[in-house]
Amino acid sequence: MLLRHTPEEITERGSLVINPAKTCQPIGAMYAALGIHGCLPHSHGSQGCCAYHRSTLTRHYKEPISAATSSFTEGASVFGGQANLVQAINNIFSVYEPEVIAVHTTCLSETIGDDLNQIRDKAEKDGKIPDGKFVIGAPTPSYVGSHVTGFSNMVKAMAMVAEKTGKKNGKINIIPGWVEPADMEEIKRLASLVGVDFIMFPDTSGVLNGPLSGEYHMFPEGGVTMKELKSAGDSMGTLALGEWCSADAARALDSTHKVPCKVLDMPFGLKATDRFIDALRTVAGVSVSEEITHERGQLVDMMSDMHQYFYHKKVALVGDPDQLIAMTEFLVSIDMCPVHVVTGTPGKRFEKRIKELTADMPFEVNVKASGDMFLLHQWIKNEPVDLIMGNSYCKYIARDEDIPLVRWGFPILDRVGHQYFPTVGYKGGLRLLEKILGVLLDRKDRDAPEETFELVL
Amino acid sequence: MATLKKKLVQWEPTDIKEELLKKYPPKVARKRAKQILINEAQENETPEISANVRTVPGIITMRGCTYAGCKGVILGPTRDIVNITHGPIGCGFYSWLTRRNQTDASAEGAENYMTYCFSTDMQDEDIIFGGEKKLEKAIQEAYDTFHPKAIAVFATCPVGLIGDDIHAVAKKMKEKLADCNVFAFSCEGYKGVSQSAGHHIANNQIFRHVVGENDEEKDGEYKINLLGEYNIGGDGFEIDRILKKCGITNIATFSGNSTYDQFASAPKADLNTVMCHRSINYVADMLETKYGIPWIKVNFIGAEATAKSLRKIAQYFGDKKLIDRVEEVIAEEMPEVKAVAEDVYPRTEGKTAMLFVGGSRAHHYQELFAEMGMKTLSAGYEFAHRDDYEGREVIPTLRVDADSRNIEEIEVEADEARYSPRKSSEEMEKLEEAGFKFKHYDGMIPDMDKGTLIIDDLNQYEAEKLVEILKPDVFCAGIKEKFSIQKLGVPMKQLHSYDSGGPYAGFKGAINFYKEIDRLVNSRIWGYMKAPWQETPELSATYVWE
Fold it and tell me: CB–CB of B3 and A144 under 8 A?
């Protein structure tokens, strides 16, 4: 057994996290910043933070992740990191020539109290920021929230780039939240199909799912441009997908520039996608194209075709709040039963939402925010499930307990596909069902006695 | 943008160096110039390189931090210690199962905590009011849940800044728990200039708190310790297989596939063999001073190097039985290795490689490439010191700077009860007269050809330029470098984690490596990068329908 020391008996732990279901803020900020065109993320801390984030993102995306670091030493930690950051800004613009540097802090620079705005102003005054180039920044203390918070904080920093000219641009801001590049592409496709003119940020499509062509571009074609971000203050409104990932940025645009916003769930599964499309339609004042209705019908068709395999199957879910809320709703909508739901990210509202969504389920739900995968495993030992959905770390539980696993979330370090095939929208729903069915039916085929082993399922 | 074009002109090394430095601001260029060396391969004199110095802020380095070197590299591969990261959640999360250290915990009742991640998950109130209480409780909770024989605590950046005394907490809990050794590592990420500082901090504390804790005699003949082998991709398994076949007893590996008891019993060995000189040579020195165990440098990367290392071990013990057995094993293992080498040779001969990794691997793997007829064009370490480049002779001349000063050097004296020289000074002299070298490492530079480029702490920009100019057939570094190199159409082999391959050590490892490099440098994949319409964009004919 790989997790042989995990006992079935659950004891209260107040100080020790075991097998976390979250990581720290800066990696989320780095991922978000990669969704700005021509942007080099910069980690204001010691080298290890940047190395760890780049490694994890690289293993997840199988793509180059460029980011720089302030390379703090003991001296910088004592005397402050201003000199390191100003020097870094100068070196980055000289050597890598990005359009923009997106700086995020770390537990180190936050603990010593470095002020990003003040350092940025110093760099500007010293002439280290060339004309037409930008330095933006987000505070991302690792000891608050989770990687989701860091993502949200950097997206908010992107929203703060917005300016208001007073002349509306006729566009809608879409804040997609922490989804895969393929999902961002799909959200754009759906918005275009509805006929909405939009600015989407961040946008990692085209950045983290690039081609192999014999050329390396540190700054690929994709990403939201600084020009678009500036223009976001003149948009008609903002659709923010995910309370945890995107709402802060949307509300900041509202309070700063009076751009009204609506916070929706991430469009995973039928109902959340319905609400997303309906919101787009309402905002744009158009009727939804037949193409989208057709795609929706295909998803409903597969849900009905395979319902017998989903019905009352128990699921354990682990991941991030926005994704889990939408996924729980989706699973309940096909009569699956998410009985254990854990996120490492804090937030009591999360537990409330999951309880509401599962209220009519024939089983009681175990749900925890600020939980960990050790607890999830113990719950599974106490009440076994038919399926686990979560990141690659789940495979240790899945193997020990012999339970099918669908990899979904972050990070996925041992499979590919998440970069290229969306799980948002109706088409994404089809893919999720395909994946769920695949593992459930593989299990049925593996376990069925010869006399009941069947060709047609 | 970088585009790979066919080399039109032969670059002179000095021109390459100039090209690498051209775009830097003057201060950066001056600093980097000292870390880029054109190998002059003068007789009896190794040129000097600047190493183990700070990375310039903003330069995209390959390096990690002290915590990574301590918790990830050195303590990561030991399976029965509960490693608690004291800090915000990230550091523990990123070092959780990401280094491919394999471990064999199949024995009945064996403990294995390597699949777990333990963290105090510090919150803002812990940063403000201090985290000692939380750490104390976390240790108690870990003990109550798992009852391990040892709990280790690792400091992350904020811990040092807010002044948590993790050593005092560890001491208190060790006394309280009584049957659990608790010790701590001040491995804050900002210390030192790279993960190397973390190796040092880790090894010092293991030496201080664990080594020598078990005085029971160990069975077996020809007892050695293997220092600086981390069982990435199963390297340690292959080395252990060979040692066992030869009848050599490996008491402790530092730290691949290791257990607490192995470290505790290390003084029972009669010879220390050092694989990765960088990460552990000082432990070998301390073991010699304290217990009288001599050390030699070995290298199990490369079939010839493996054979040579086995012969060295046999020669040290000087027993005919072992000497003969080692020859038998080599004779048994070599034919299969040679057969594969001969098979791949025509396809790999004359190909070129670049290696930028670690503190030893960039040197060791040149052996394997040489066995395949491949030339190393350029190499360098990520976190090594000058002695790893130039040889141990330079150690007395190394300057102690602001960054190395705060990495503890522990003073060791001979253990009154347990010090026992394994060889008399006459025996040692005799071995040395026969050409046997103790405590000896010449470094990477003397093994490299004239005109090759040796580059310390290579960064993203220089890597791209080097590949663009010299167009190697394979580039070796780590995961962060992998895909930017491959976008250029050059295969990249991870030599930290071996991608998903390995083992590459020992005889079977050599076979795996030959096949892997053959696969990489002769892959069809790199020929698909251009679509037909990109190869010939001009429409010169109309389509001929059948």
Answer: no
- Tell me the CATH number at B86: 3.40.50.1980
Q: Tell me the chain A residues in contact with residue B111 when contact means C-beta distances shorter than 8 Å.
A: 5
Same fold, A25-159 and A172-290: yes
Q: Percent of chain B scored above 70 by pLDDT?
A: 97
Residue B199 a catalytic site member: yes
Beta-carbon contacts of residue B316 (< 8 Å; ≥ 6 apart): B271, B294, B296, B431, B436
Contact of A64 with chain B, judged by CB distance below 8 Å, is answered with: yes
Q: What is the ipTM of this complex?
A: 0.98
Catalytic residue of the set B32, B63, B65, B477? B65
- Given 3.30.830.10, 3.10.450.50, 3.40.50.1980, 2.60.40.1180, which CATH number is that of A25-159? 3.40.50.1980
Q: Is residue B131 part of a domain?
A: yes
Q: How far apart are the first and last CA of chain B?
A: 43
The whole-angstrom distance between B492's CA and the closest CA on chain A is 12
B-contacting residues of A 149-168, CB under 8 Å?
none
Task: Give backbone dihedrals phi and psi of A403, rounded to 5 degrees, phi first.
Answer: -125, 135
Q: Residue B64, exposed/middle/buried by CB under 10 A (0-12, 13-18, 19+)?
A: buried
* pLDDT on residue B1: 43
Tokens of A49: 């933070």
Does any domain span residue B182?
yes
**Boundaries of domain holding B78:** 66-189
Q: Is residue B219 part of a domain?
A: no
Q: List residues bridging with B229 in a β-sheet.
A: B255
- The yes/no answer on whether domain A295-451 falls in CATH 3.40.50.1980 is yes
Question: Is B107 inside any structural domain?
Answer: yes
Active-site residue, selected from the candidate residues B32, B51, B63, B68: B68
Tokens of B183: 């010790």
**DSSP-assigned beta bridge partners for residue A387:** A315
Asked if A382 reaches chain B (Cβ–Cβ under 8 Å), the answer is no
Q: Any catalytic annotation for residue B68? A: yes
H/E element, B474: strand B474-477
Chain A residues within an 8 Å CB radius of B28: 91, 95
pTM (predicted TM-score): 0.97
Which CATH number among 3.40.640.10, 3.40.50.1980, 3.40.309.10, 3.30.360.10 corresponds to the domain A172-290? 3.40.50.1980
Residue B191 pLDDT more than 70?
A: yes
Q: What is the pLDDT of residues B480-492, one digit of tens each?
A: 999 999 999 999 9
CB A18 to CB B117 under 8 A?
A: yes
Ordered by start, the domain boundaries in chain A are 25-159, 172-290, 295-451
User: Which residue among B199, B361, B363, B496 is the active-site one?
Assistant: B199
Q: List the 348-387 stretch of B: residues with Cβ below 8 A of A.
A: none
User: Cα–Cα distance between A422 and A416 in angstroms, integer?
Assistant: 12
